[in-house]
Amino acid sequence: MARTHLDQLENNSVYILREAFHAFRNIAMPWSMGKDSSVLIWLSLKAFFGKVPYPVLHIDTTYEFPEMLEFREWATAHYKLNLIVKINEEARARGVGYEWHDPVTVTHELKTVALQQVLAEHKFDALITGIRRDEDPTRAKERYFSPRNAQYEWSYKDQPPEFWGQFASSAGEGQHVRVQPLLDWTEADIWRYIQREKIPIPQMYFARNGERYRSLGCMPITKPVKSNAATIEEIIAELDETKTSERAGRAQDHHERNAMQKLRAKGFM
Q1: In the predicted model, what is the mean pLDDT of residues 122-138?
Q2: What is the Cα–Cα distance from 179 to 246, expressed in whole angstroms?
Q3: How far apart are CA 181 and CA 48, in angstroms?
Q4: Is residue 28 within 8 Å of residue 54, measured between CB atoms?
């Protein structure tokens, strides 16, 4: 049988996961419990014969939706995941929070700095992330294997070439590489794959009372979109018509000009 578009995406992602696992000695997968990271868990199970061989890392801002935390506990047990939960306790003790600070400041402190802390603690040399090029113009500049320097910074103006499947598969002292198996996937691809594979996801993505979430983040700064799409078929049909961006409900992206690019340059996922 001829390979479908989803088969090709799946095969490429599995190849990238296996290349990363072979290349790096201490690898982890950040996990938001959203649709993209749920697909990454599924692809990892396929790549490594039913087991996720690296820890999954949840950066907990303490502003998570209760439903997401419930899904985290279910999925950890269901997939037998090695889960690491990291909170920037020092920032929370200083009072950093959405009640008193702007979304970019809180995102940097409670997500990016927390990620830097856990990288320093565990000495991870690679992180498998679920970003896609179609989500945001800044993410479109990424590579499959994207290096970060010892200060956790990303030089989006100086990306390594990736000719003939050759990747930046090593990290210097204190550095790490972001491995991004979903770069070529679109939002619709993700949904079609979830539908085909019957992948469990949080129910917040489906319409309730005329609204649903397209992208999930911290509760105070994540807003639903108007929608009556209560099934995957209806979500895919909606994506064909909508002019609203996937991350329109994520306040940190729109707080200031080039907010996402500034956050990512400093190490944000």
Answers
A1: 90
A2: 22
A3: 15
A4: yes
Question: How far is the C-alpha of 145 from the C-alpha of 168, rounded, in Å?
Answer: 6
Q: Distance between CA 155 and CA 266 in Å, rounded?
A: 9
User: DSSP assignment of 43-81, as one string?
Assistant: HHHHHTTT---S-EEEE--S---HHHHHHHHHHHHHHT-
> Would you tell me how many other CB atoms lie within 10 Å of the CB of residue 239?
16
Confidence (pLDDT) at 172: 72
Q: What is the pLDDT of residues 16-75, one digit of tens each?
A: 999 999 999 999 999 999 999 999 999 999 999 999 999 999 999 999 999 999 999 999
Sequence-separated (6 or more) residues with CB below 8 Å from residue 162: 143, 144, 145, 168
Taking each continuous run of H as one helix and of E as one strand, the counts in the chain are 9, 8
Q: What's this model's pTM, rounded to 2 decimal places?
A: 0.87
